[in-house]
Amino acid sequence: MSTPTRILLADAGSAFHERLRPLLLGPHPPFSLDCPSTPAAAQHAIRYAAHDVYLIDQRWGPRGGLAFVGEALRQGSCGPFVLLLDRPGYALEPLGSPAGRVYGLPIRELALGPLVPQLHGAVRLARELLRQGQLGDALLRQVQRQTHELEQSALRGQAQAAQAQQTLLRERELNELKSRFLTMASHEFRTPMSTILSSAALIERYHDGADEAKRRKHVLRIKSAVANLDGILRDFLVLDGLNQAKLPYHPVAVPLPAFVADVAEEAQQGARLGQHVRYAHVGASGAVVTDAQILKNILLNLLSNASKYSDQGQEIRLTSEVTPAELVLIVQDEGMGIPHEEQPRLFTDFFRARNAEHIQGTGLGLYLVKRYVERLGGRISYLSEPHVGSTFTVRLPVQPPLSHENDPVD
């Protein structure tokens, strides 16, 4: 038994289905007829390709049958569509493109008998077009797959070239870093070493008790110079650890504000003559989960910078605040500030502002602070005005980051 030819009829009141139905029940090849009640229902049926041919009244849908058919074609339907035209005529006629998918059928004087073989011819043509389209789609997919493979191969080649370029750039950066290090080290080591040598030579000249005060003065100078050298070497070691991804991370519950107050007191001991570190905590006290040593390093570096670039007797203000989401630390000074044109380079390694070249330092302090802050999953911002001062704000999460790519492997 042959499979029925499935017809969808979208009839906008022409009663064409009432004329067609008796013919379908006659001794002709079997048909099945569906008559959706709305354009939305018709489009839904067309999307699921449930019929062999679609008879669409020219008045169907809010914009007419032709617009309805155009929308169905844009959504991927292969048809065939037969647009029922309210004018005289007797036979199917192709309507424009795509060829073989849309026909016009005048129905005002239509004799239904010749319609049956015409509908079968339209269905056969549509099925052949669909088969050809499927073959074309298969060929297109094969071409696309081969094109994708070629593109991936080209991308791999580009990635290898980019990696080689990155390696070359990295080598150049390391060479520049070594050059900057040697230049800086030759300058920064020379001053404390000269202090140590000159003070040691003078101490040798003091023999009796009357020179005890002078001897003590030069001993303190030597200790200060040694501490300076120790700080420089410590910065270099930290920098090397950061560059080699070896900075450990050990989160603990850090009590605030007691912890920050202790760091402020330690910073006060190293402050310049007459400078005062004023600390205040805003809001409720509590504990944050973070690395205590890294947090201390951040605060000491910022407070040391504030002291170094401020005059004697000036005040340095430190504020902390714990919110539900983050720990906020603010260090504010009344120092020389940073020239506006040099501020974009503030967090680069070995950076020394033009107005601070006469002050001893490695130019690594703020670079290390930024790397420390990023290690704790936070961010740092600043405001600086020459001859007015600088304010640095650090925001850290109150819980440790979810992952730490730089954690050492046991």
Automatic annotation (TrEMBL):
Q: Which reaction does it catalyse?
A: ATP + protein L-histidine = ADP + protein N-phospho-L-histidine
UniProt cross-references to Pfam families, sorted A to Z: HATPase_c, HisKA
One Gene Ontology term of the molecular function aspect: phosphorelay sensor kinase activity
EC numbers on record: 2.7.13.3
Which keywords, in A-to-Z order, does the entry hold? Kinase, Phosphoprotein, Transferase, Two-component regulatory system
> In what residue span(s) does the Histidine kinase domain sit?
184-400
What InterPro entries does this protein's entry cite? HATPase_C_sf, HATPase_dom, His_kinase_dom, HisK_dim/P_dom, HisK_dim/P_sf, Sensor_HK_Regulatory, Sig_transdc_His_kin-like_C
Q: What class of enzyme is it?
A: transferase
- Asked if Kinase is a keyword of the record, the answer is yes
Does the keyword Aminoacyl-tRNA synthetase feature in the UniProt annotation? no
Name the record gives this protein: histidine kinase
